[in-house]
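Recap from last week: sequence in, structure out.
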Amino acid sequence: MENALESASQNDPLDRLYSHYNNFEPIAILSVDTPDNTAEQNQENLAALTRHLFLAGFLYHRIQGEYTDRNKQTIEDTHTVIIYAYPDRQKELEKFTLSLGKAFHQQAVILIGKSGQTRLISPQGDTPEQTLGSFHPENLRQYFNKTGKKKYRIKTLSEPKNYPERPKTWEMPAFETYRKKLVQTEDIYTEWEKCIIQPKPDKPSE
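Predicted C-alpha cells:
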C-alpha cells in the first residue's frame, strides 16, 4: 500500500508527525482554500492564517500535496497546515481551528486530541460531528477524503514554523492581547479582526 505521506527530502515528514503524536500533543489540520477561490484569494487567506498562527504561538507545518476535486481535476495543494499545541492548550487549539475554518468557509476541519481520538467537525455547524477513531498518520488520506479532497497525497511537509515563547518587547502587547482573547472567546478570528480594523473616532469639531 502506498504510504499516505511521501517525502522528497531525507527527513521523513511521517516521523515528524509521529513525534508530536507520541508526545500527546493535540493536532489540527486546516485548509484555507475553497473551489470558488482564485489563486490570489487562497494566497491571501494563507497569509492571514499565518499571521494568526504567529500570534497564537502554535507550531505548524505547511503541506505540499495534491488531490482530486469534485470535477475530477488534479489540484496542487499549498494552502493546508498541520498545527500542533502543547497538551494544556488543546482547548485553545480547537477554538482557534474552528474559528479560522469558519472564516475561510471550510466544509470541515480535523482535530486530533491528546488522547489520540480524531474528529471531523464542520466549522459552519451545518453537519454533525464525526468521530473517526484513534489517530494514525497512515490514515491521513482517509481523513482528507472526508473533507472533499479525494485521493489526497502529501508530497512533503515544510520545515516546522515556530515562534518564541518570549516575543520581542515591541511584539508583547499584541501577543498578550491575542492569547487572552483566544482563551476568552469562541471566535478569535472575528474578535481579532474587529480589533485591528476598528476605525478611529472622528475628532471633535472645534
